[in-house]
Amino acid sequence: MLDLAQRIVLCALLGSVYASCPPRCECSEAAHTVKCVSRDLRSVPTGIPGYTRNLFITGNQISRIGPESFKGLENVTNLSLSNNRISEVESNSFAGLRNLRSLDLSNNQLAVIHPEAFTVQNQSLRELNLSRALYNHSSVMDLASSLRWSSLGTLRGLDLSDNGLIYLPSRIFSHLTSLQRLQLSNNSLVSIHNSTLSGLERLEELDLTLNALKTVSEEGLQELDSLPDTTLLLLGENPFTCKCGIEPFALWLNRSQGRIRDAEDLMCAFPVSMRNTSMLAVGTLTLGCHQRNAGADIALQTSYVFLGIVLGFVGLIFLFVLYLNRKGIKKRIYDMRDACREVWEGYHYRFEIDSGPRLSQVSSSGDM
């Protein structure tokens, strides 16, 4: 009889656990995991068990996340919302997830990100994945505001790869004082400037591979030097243009080899004559640029001086010839003056003759 009672209680417990699992989701209390994968969900399902620590709601048709989306899920530590169609994340959407440590929003279409979209109580969030998540370039401004206002002082890893980013707003990471890993690979970043990397006092790894960096300006080099000495950099697969002016960057690469994980793999992409040349060798190969330019400047200055001397000499000869022919020139000027005077007097005389008949006709017309 006792065994039967125990079985009934066990069945009841199992039934309650099964009943608490949302439709079209899979729940495992033993693994503290709930999966709602590719179920064509339009919103976050209700009735998710309170024991859930790992929540996967991926590959659905969810378009919006709000403060009501995750109520009663204080135990969730890992939340994946990847491969949905989320376009808007409201402020405090994850505030109730007091133990949230990892948030994955990759492969979405975030167009509107509210200022406190990533705020989590207790500042427990450690990893934020926004790879392939931004809808367009304008959403990066919303992201910058959210990173400032969402109290992410304990965030350790941020993934912004594969977003087509052309630029990053000034001081976008300045409030992420505990950030250790920043992934910016496979974007379209053309430069590092404007205090983009300000505030990253504990950064350990910065991935800038597969961007559009042709060189790094002196301002960008200063920003990279402002990072902690222990920061490892990745710069591969960028279209470095090895022409005059890249020497400071090439020299910096040689000086900073210990920090650049792929330093030996960095190659020139342009011009064609320098393609596949190691960037570490560019410093010694192109240092003659300035020497050649200096030689060209000297040659050009010499040409200008020589041209000035020639022109001055020609001018002196011309003045000397004028001086020798001053009497003849004077006579020609007088002759031209007399010829002009005769022409003018002839024209005046003909005008007076032609005007006589017209005047007589006018007077006779008046008499009539």
Main beta sheet, described? 10 strands, mixed
Number of helices: 7
State the end-to-end distance.
156 Å
CATH class of the largest domain: Alpha Beta
Helix content: 25-40%
Q: Name the average pLDDT.
A: 87
Write down the Rg: 41 Å
Count the beta strands.
13
Q: What structural class should be given to the helix and strand makeup?
A: alpha/beta
Weakly predicted, low-confidence segments: 8-19
Beta-strand percentage? Answer: 5-15%
User: What is the overall shape?
Assistant: elongated
Would you list the SSEs in sequence order as H and E? HEEEEEEEEEHEEEHEHHHH
CATH topology annotation of the largest domain: Leucine-rich repeat, LRR (right-handed beta-alpha superhelix)
Strand arrangement across the biggest beta sheet: 1-2-3-5-7-9-10-11-12-13
CATH superfamily of the largest domain: Ribonuclease Inhibitor
Domains (count)? 2
